[in-house]
Design goal:
528 residues; alpha+beta; eight-stranded mixed β-sheet; five-stranded parallel β-sheet; 13 helices; 22 strands
């Protein structure tokens, strides 16, 4: 198979254009090209007057050896081995493994174990995605929060109610397994080649259901509304898992437990800490969500091509360091999306961003986060959680104690005045917002960092200069403030068979890396 990279293509390109381009560049006839498969597609908008696509493709041609020899000096041409996707080899275990949590990490751990034939049992404290969607809707519309089933807890994890972004800077063969499995279970095939792939909440919901059904078809079991309580050990080895469902306690005998409970399962962190498991504080971030109209962002990023149908909704990734060296950066950018209520505990405000696959909403939003280190909150294992909780609880109070979020215009934040009305940009957060400055709920050093960064971002992306852009907060759950320490074999030193996994355990930073870490732990369970 031949790989041709760095193809600069017009926005209106089609298969005919691509075949002719490749034939000319490789000095062959169009009829010599048997097939073309797109493997990477990105937008180059550095020149606003000439926005183009950059493509990489795999090509099947007649007389491949001769074509490669003829083009040996073309640096854009390389030979690649055709990949064949294989399911993992079967394995045997003395007892069925248990996976706690059915977010990306737990889901892919369970899928791998099911494919190995060891029939995993999954415990998920939240509900299945359909029931969960209805409970989340009630919270967004009426302020009725279910603390066990919400944007953080339930089938698919926190990523289910997000943009479903699949970006990762980690170069690991396991990432290709994750992408292939997502597509195999219903995700759009575009994620295999888009430079910034995403699924969207609507597509992701169906995909996670299909993964669950596949796990069950292979003998696995997924138990919803099942809250992990504790584990039992015998001679330094996991012997059982205790969980609660409908106010009754149950015990499962097992010698392998993958703990993939996510970054918001704070009760699990406290439970492990009380049992003497080594937890250490780690860096994380807090900040706000910023909203612009999607049209304004499109114009800023694409210039005169801002409404071209081939481009879709524009996005961005931006960062800066302040005079103290503290990092401020965009995170979880959601084109054509909305800011969503994401609390998992009573009397708190937590925000996140969400988009559907089409990304056709009126606004674009992104977290603007400020880096936090243990020097900012303390060195005890759980001090970072306390730091987060204080911000979330304070935001709830200052915004009216009714799950409305504190919100203001950017210009008002930078000038220290209360917002009296919204103009160019309308808030998307439900169940509503209360005009409140971030200074009322975020630490002073975080606000100072944001006030430094936003004008700096405005020098690079014009919509950040709009004083009517909105700030809604707080954003506190971008990553776990805790790491559950595990050894090189991926289990906790003093408890053999206990595998902390994913973002909540401090070993991932998004959907793909969390899923990869789940697979790694599953491989360790079966001795790979």
């Amino acid at each position: 198979m031949i790989r041709y990279s760095n193809i600069t293509a017009p926005l209106e390109y089609n298969d005919g254009w691509l075949r002719l381009y490749l034939a000319q560049k490789m000095k062959i006839s169009v009829s010599d090209i048997k097939s073309i498969t797109l493997v990477k597609k990105s937008v180059d908008a550095r020149k606003k007057s000439d926005v183009v696509f950059v493509l990489s493709v795999n090509i099947s041609v007649k007389n491949e050896t001769e074509v490669l020899k003829k083009n040996k000096h073309n640096k854009n041409i390389s030979y690649i081995k055709k990949e064949k996707y294989l399911l993992p080899l079967t394995a045997t275990l003395p007892k069925r493994p248990v996976v706690v949590g059915f977010g990306p990490s737990g889901m892919f751990a369970a899928l791998y174990l099911a494919q190995c034939g060891v029939k995993p049992i999954v415990l998920e404290r939240g509900s299945d995605v359909d029931t969960r969607t209805e409970k989340v809707r009630k919270f967004w519309e009426k302020g009725e929060l279910d603390t066990e089933c919400n944007v953080q807890f339930g089938e698919g994890g926190a990523g289910t109610f997000s943009d479903g972004k699949l970006n990762t800077g980690v170069n690991n063969p396991l990432s290709r397994i994750v992408f292939n499995e997502l597509v195999r279970h219903g995700a759009p095939s575009e994620i295999l080649y888009e430079a910034k792939p995403h699924i969207g909440t609507d597509k992701l919901s169906e995909t996670v259901k299909n993964i669950r059904k596949d796990i069950i078809s292979m003998g696995g079991e997924v138990i919803f509304d099942a809250k992990y309580l504790d584990y039992k050990e015998n001679n330094g080895r996991i012997s059982a898992v205790i969980y609660e469902k409908e106010n009754k306690e149950y015990v499962i005998d097992t010698d392998s437990l993958i703990l993939a409970t996510g970054h918001s399962a704070r009760d699990v962190f406290y439970s492990l800490n009380n049992k003497g498991i080594l937890l250490i504080p780690k860096n994380f971030s807090v900040g706000v969500r910023i909203e612009h109209t999607q049209e304004e962002l499109n114009k800023a990023m694409y210039g005169e091509f801002y409404n071209h149908p081939a481009l879709g909704a524009a996005d961005y990734k931006i960062s800066v360091h302040d005079k103290n060296g503290r990092g401020i950066y965009s995170f979880c950018m959601c084109p054509g999306g909305s800011v969503v209520a994401s609390s998992s505990e009573k009397s708190t405000i937590v925000t996140n961003g969400m988009s559907m696959f089409s990304r056709n909403g009126q606004n674009a939003n992104s977290a603007i986060l400020v880096g936090i280190t243990p020097d900012d909150f303390g060195t005890n294992a759980l001090d970072g959680i306390v730091f987060q909780e204080k911000i979330e609880e304070t935001a709830f109070i200052v915004a009216g104690k009714n799950y409305k979020a504190p919100c203001c215009k950017v210009g008002d934040f930078l000038n220290g005045r209360i917002t009296e009305g919204f103009h160019d940009v309308k808030p998307t957060y439900r169940p509503g917002v209360t005009p409140t400055l971030p200074d009322k709920y975020l630490p002073e050093f975080v606000c100072d960092a944001l006030k430094f960064a936003i004008p700096e971002f405005g020098r690079k992306i014009s919509c950040f200069r709009n004083p009517d852009a909105l700030i809604t907060g707080p954003e506190t759950r971008s990553s776990s403030p805790v790491r559950i320490v595990r050894n090189e074999k991926l289990y906790i030193d003093k408890i053999k068979g206990l595998y902390p996994a994913g973002e909540g355990a401090g070993y991932a930073g998004g959907i793909i890396t969390a899923a990869m870490d789940g697979i790694k732990c599953a491989m360790a369970v079966v001795g790979r």
